[in-house]
Predict the structure of Sugar ABC transporter permease.
Amino acid sequence: MARGNRRHRPPWLSYTLVAIGGVLMALPFLDMISSSFKGSGEYGILPYHFLPDSFTWSNYAAAFDQLQLGRLFLNSVIVTLTVTAAVLVTSAMGGYALAKLRFRGRDVIFRFVLATMMLPPFLLLIPDFIIMLNWPLTGGNNILGQGGDGGMTTSIVSLMLPFLVSGFGIFLMRQFMIGVPDEMLEAARIDGAGEWRLFYNIVLPQTGPVAITLGLVTFVSQWNEYIWTSLIASTNPDLMTLPVGIQLLQSFIDPNRTTPIVMAGIIISTLPVLIIFLFFQRYYVRGVMLSGMK
């Protein structure tokens, strides 16, 4: 059949399907917002009411009180910002070394980085926890990591250490930096520029969109980290972050009474991620496109 005779799908049909898909994806989030304004015992009754009978802001005040949201929020901010900054720095420097430096064993190191991406994260939980328990000179441990009471698990640093370096981040930055012309770097070397200046003044400014993409992915992932944090918080409840604290309240208290409070806490915990994503959205889309082209 000739191309000119092909029947095309009406454009309104595509728009309708996209609109329906968008509404279906947004419906759970809208229900969460609506539920955060419901009164005690109003959630889960049949027939189900999407809108609350009477809007109340008390759930948000109760979230700060019962969830100790201030402390959980502070822990989440400290851990997430530290991990995100560390991943950006280590990924950029590691990516540059593997993309633009020539040294013996470079390919072996790159294969090792790729191998870390193939390991399930759950496989490392127990080894990481044992390392934290026996960390020398912390939590009462001696220089051999013995005799203490919790070791590194008593410190908020334990929430960050396993995530400070990302194999995916190094791989992503390396793949992008390969596209930076070597001739540009050689010309700068002839002019007397050192490796640090090449990295900081020439290569790094060109990685902006990809770095923002990596930062957003890392931020969202770390903000929502639950399993490792719940494991550490089992030894020190003061180290709980928002996901762990909200889930703990939901698990041990009557869900019909606390679900609206939990929903309010989830809304508050979602706002930073939503604001950051909306602010950097155009850079994120550009970074994904450039990463795919590379």
Summary: DSSP finds 13 helices and no strands in the chain.
